[in-house]
Amino acid sequence: MKTEVIALAKEAERGAAEGARVLREGGLVAFPTETVYGLGANALNGRAVLGIFAAKGRPADNPLIVHVAHREALAEFACPDERAKALIETFWPGPLTLVLPKKDVVPNEVSAGLPTVGVRMPAHDGALALIRRAGLPVAAPSANTSGRPSPTCAQDVYEDMAGKIPLVLDGGPCLWGVESTVLSLAGEATVLRPGAVTPEEIGRVIGKVLVSPAALAPLKEGETAASPGMKYRHYAPKAEVILADGPTPEARAGVALRLAQNSPGRCRILATEETCGFYGGQDCVIMGSSKRPETLCAALFHCLRQADRDGVARVVLEALPPEALGLAYMNRALRAAGFRVALPTAGEF
Ligand code: TXA
Ligand code: MG
Fold first, then answer.
1. Does residue 227 have its Cβ closer than 6 Å to ligand 1?
2. Does 232 reside within a domain?
3. Which DSSP state fits 239?
4. Which of 73, 132, 207, 334 qualifies as a FRET site for 310, CA 20 to 30 Å off?
5. What's the domain count of the chain?
6. Measured between alpha carbons, how far is 38 from 32 in angstroms, rounded to an integer?
7. pTM for the whole thing?
């Protein structure tokens, strides 16, 4: 299959029209959102949705998020309570997915057989134009091959999906670079996956919010995942990834330097403005500032993919305090590293 790429900056109208046509015919379209690129299908067509699982190599028990173009659409697919209504007033359109009891119109292929469904309204003109033009809810996971870092630009999508889908809408780089916050409201409000909308911000609207322990820890043997996606290996480039942790930025930099010096193959440190001065002579990319974790979130997946393109054997990431957007960053960094964390050894400082 030939994969066409339409640049929305030049051809927004044709992109939305073509995308809508493909969706209505039961095909797959990759499209930009403010978080990461999505791989969309008509959410009401179970057969079309199965195509997403095939193109990504995604396990069938991992449910998809339904994307809508207006707030009122939430009640068509799910059963919103007062908390949900207050949250969509505050955060939609935006990077917050709500998991709620689903309505029967949502096919089991979307919810992977669960009684709940995740719904979100993206804050991206290209995504909203596509959904509106199609006149359909769009089921979409991130547009990567399952297990790889999520795509944050059209080139990343093309790398994984060329020949497998007919159309990629290119909207340039994504604003946040990490996927939406997934908040379950099926019982007590619980953040299943941290993202740009933080637990603190959610708490200000609805009161108490829990954060799933799986946000920062691997599932224990025999434990079931509240969010099926959390049990799979994630965000992994081909390179080995290790997270350098420690009590201070200097301590973390010391660990990162040691990991680079001991690396059996070419190593790249994904550094911050604050720490890059420690890494003289090393292959080091500055992702952003640890004082602005959103800059690190925006660069992380892109840098992991770039490391593979450059043939790097080991990638070293620096840990951040898991607060506010640092929580979203650490959730991805830990998974990319397969929870391999290196700590300072005595005598290093
Ligand atoms: O920002 C995003 O959320 C992007 C863009 C494209 O919107 N989408 C995305 O989808 O990241 P995906 O499929 O890669 O991740 C969705 C996550 C998975 O971990 C999945 O298990 C969880 O949300 N999820 C979806 N529906 C759920 C449900 N009903 N109950 C619990 N977890 C659910
Ligand atoms: Mg994904």
1. yes
2. no
3. S
4. 334
5. 2
6. 6
7. 0.97
